[in-house]
Design a protein that fits this description.
The complex is a heterodimer of chains A (292) and B (130).
Chain A (H helix, E strand, L loop, with lengths): L4 E5 L7 H5 L11 E9 H4 L9 H24 L3 E9 L1 H12 L3 E4 L6 H7 L2 H8 L4 E3 L17 E4 L4 H11 L7 E8 L9 H24 L3 E8 L2 H11 L4 E5 L5 H6 L3 H8 L4 E4 L5
Parallel strand pairs in A: 1-2, 1-4, 2-3, 4-5, 6-7, 6-9, 7-8, 9-10
Antiparallel strand pairs in A: 5-10
Chain B lengths: L3 E5 L3 H13 L3 E5 L2 H11 L3 E4 L8 H9 L9 E5 L3 H13 L10 E4 L4 H12 L1
Parallel strand pairs in B: 1-2, 1-3, 3-4, 4-5
Helix pairs in contact in B: 1-5, 2-3
The chains are: A alpha/beta (292), B alpha/beta (130).
């Protein structure tokens, strides 16, 4: 599971070229092809009373995007990278999934949700829909602000959140394929309050010990692949604790498996991947389970 | 039978512009929207000239150009590069690929930066096809 080709989805506001540059360490892990995608959302060029379809608005938006992409592509071409581009009109999630399929990309990189909470309730979250419908890992890129709003290599010191699900196992495999890019990984399991079957100190410590042992086995597995790994157990609300762990470990990114749930549950329920993508300040790489 | 010109560009408006220039010049245009389809058409149709964009989905003009110029049966086909990407970038990218171990390729027969006037393109096409 190598990252040879990535789809970089941008609206030019929250995701700039420096974000892509910060991912260029992936070249050590086989990256050689970047595909740019800009989706012009329909409402920007849609039919308006008395105005009709705004073809001129579409041309303007396309050319603006094209000029930026040419500039970015020139830099990448000169590094010997292969570059492709799509500038399309349509629904955001649908176009991202379509481009990812057409190009058979190994990673989708996009910015955090643009829609507000109320809008998400009616039309759903784009990220949730993409993670749900696509079988490609999705990196929700966020600028880390430790040294101001700078783009740092998110793969340098990731935090792997695992709950031992199939999607988590795929995330582990994905991580192993990135061993040339990763300096160190912190492996975290968050035990929920419900998992603490006993209320005694001994019982709670037992839960920690069991999880810790599994994490240590996983860290040994990663170290055998040449990735320095440290285990951590947290207890409480999963999203909040993963975010806390990432802060404490000074992580550069959170990696988590994203189990397949119904879109309805994803939209209305409390999905961890959705929670991380929306609430965490860290870039979040969501790995869907294997197809079928 | 008139000579065939393959136009490879992902932008339908540019393809329309180029095919019109080709037709007006008395040649037969054929079209592809990306490098991958372009290569298939080169092999199927054996065009007399290729007008090639650089930045496209699936396969860029940089890779297609390299495929054409390193293939013994295709390297004789003249190529006009027509792109918004600067010629300097094109040459540097080819140099970078050669440094990574690919075969060296010659400079393109012609390099035009978008946008072009119809007369300029027609004149360039005639230079190769007479």
């Amino acid at each position: 599971m190598e990252i040879k080709k990535l789809l970089f989805v941008t609206r030019f506001d929250k995701l700039r070229f420096d974000a892509l540059q910060s991912l260029m360490d992936l070249k050590k892990a086989a990256l050689n092809h970047v595909v740019f995608l800009n989706v012009i959302e329909r409402e920007k060029v849609a039919m308006r009373r008395g105005k009709g379809y705004e073809k001129s608005a579409e041309i303007r938006l396309r050319e603006k995007a094209n000029i930026r992409f040419i500039d970015w592509a020139e830099t990448l071409f000169e590094q010997g990278m292969e570059v492709g581009v799509y500038i399309v009109v349509g629904s955001f999630a649908g176009q991202v999934i379509q481009a990812a399929e057409k190009e058979s990309v190994d990673l989708i990189v996009l910015s955090p949700e643009k829609k507000g909470r109320l809008e998400q309730l009616y039309s759903g979250s784009d990220i949730t829909e993409i993670v749900h419908r696509s079988h490609t890992p999705v990196l929700v890129y966020k600028y880390l602000t430790r040294k101001g709003p700078l783009a740092e290599n998110p793969f340098e010191k990731p935090l792997l959140a695992t709950n031992w699900s199939d999607a988590s196992h795929r995330a582990i495999d994905y991580l192993k394929s990135l061993k040339d890019v990763i300096r160190e990984v912190d492996v975290v399991h968050v035990a929920s309050e419900k998992e603490l079957k006993e209320t005694s100190a001994m019982g709670i410590q037992k839960t920690r010990k069991e999880n810790r042992r599994k994490l240590e086995d996983l860290c040994d597995e990663l170290e055998a692949e040449g990735i320095l790994a440290k285990p951590h157990v947290y207890i409480g609300d999963t999203v909040a604790e993963i975010d806390k762990a990432a802060r404490e470990c000074q992580s550069s990114m959170i990696i988590a498996g994203s189990p397949r749930k119904s879109l309805w549950k994803e939209r209305w329920g409390t999905s961890i991947s959705k929670g991380l993508a929306e609430q965490s300040i860290f870039p979040v790489l969501l790995i869907p389970p294997v197809e079928g | 039978m008139s000579k065939k010109v393959l136009i490879v560009d992902d932008d339908p408006d540019v393809r329309l512009f180029n095919t019109t220039v080709v037709e007006e010049s008395g040649y037969t245009p054929i079209e592809a929207a990306n490098g991958e389809d372009g290569l298939k058409l080169v092999k199927q149709e054996s065009p007399d000239l290729v007008v090639l964009d650089v930045l496209m989905p699936k396969q860029s003009g940089i890779r297609l150009y390299r495929e054409l110029k390193t293939n013994k049966s295709l390297q004789r086909i003249p190529v006009i590069m027509l792109s918004g990407v600067a010629k300097r970038t094109f040459l540097r990218s080819q140099k970078a690929l050669t440094e990574f171990g690919d075969k060296p390729v010659p400079e393109p027969d012609s390099y035009l930066e978008k946008p072009v006037e119809p007369e300029e393109l027609a004149q360039e096409i005639k230079k190769f096809l007479g």
